Amino acid sequence: MDLSPLGSDELRREQVAPKFIATSPTGALRGSFGRYGSVMTPEQALLRVIYCLDRAHETGFKAKAFTRALDVVRSTPPAELSDRAANDTLTDLDGIGKSTAAVIADALAGRKPAYLTKIEAESQVSITAEGQVYRDALRGDCHLHSTWSDGGAPIEAMAATAMAIGHEYIVQTDHSARLTIAHGLDEQRLSEQLDQIAVINADIAAAGREFQIMTGMEVDILPDGSLDLVDEMLERLDVVVASVHSKLRMDRQPMTERMVMAVASPHVDILGHCTGRLIGKRPTSEFDADSVFAACAQSNTAVEINCRPERLDPPRVLLDQAIEHGCWFSINTDAHATGQLEWQPLGCDRAAERGVPIDRIINTMPANDLLAWTNTP
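Above: the chain's sequence. Below: its structure in token form.
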């Protein structure tokens, strides 16, 4: 199948994708026309623009405009698109504006769209030389979402992107059922997802690719510290990320007890975005960081370094405390779209700045070693 990267939440209809085949998505992801011969189709060009907009964390009008244009292109006969491009009437189609028409016209003319060249350059994620050392050591990403919950791309597209940027594995961690706003998975839907992941992994292996999708979930930490999934299902997962998504303004002491109870669970492998902050929008939750990180260290629960630009969680002072406690760490994108899988440099720069020991970062481990680590009591 064509695993061109998908973009924003409006592409949820792509959840059921055809089987994985050996065709590499690298050309589409990196903007090369080589994968397609000499040109991109209008659909491929628009998909790449959406990918770059996701990478740039552009969720406003531009992303919606290009997503709408993609819908129009997919529903319009190719011959009509060619005729309209030749007669400069693409913008007469409802949903096609000046910018999207230019991308379509350039692609039809065999040119790399000028807007694509611009957005590819502007959306590059920078990294320091020190951070690059950490990025080079990473083998995978342990926290990401798909259209099964609130992500914008199917599992196959997330996996294809991960392969194209050099990962050896990803952990599929869609939300648990309690987070209804994110279309979280109940036990039945999680079982169905595990079956789908098994099929996709088999297809990847049959295609001769050395890559693995590990099973997982971002499980809600409930107000009493219990987890939003029964033990029987937790035991079936390779990696469990536990995060607080509700009652974020809980008083300091009960929040501390809530988090300590969760990270001490033998099922929990990673504490996700520990403060719950959204920079400039939502403050950090209040808890006793020393108690929480001591519990993480004692339970071998990794502290996530969340790379989302609006999170960058934990803040520097708390990251320093976690280092002092000898915690494990995991540098994760928390990606909700394919382009966001390129956000790890943000966390790598933060890890380098604060001196996180590379040998304490779990996603520098090969897949088999990571699985052995998560299965160690």
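The chain has two domains: 31-122, 129-374.
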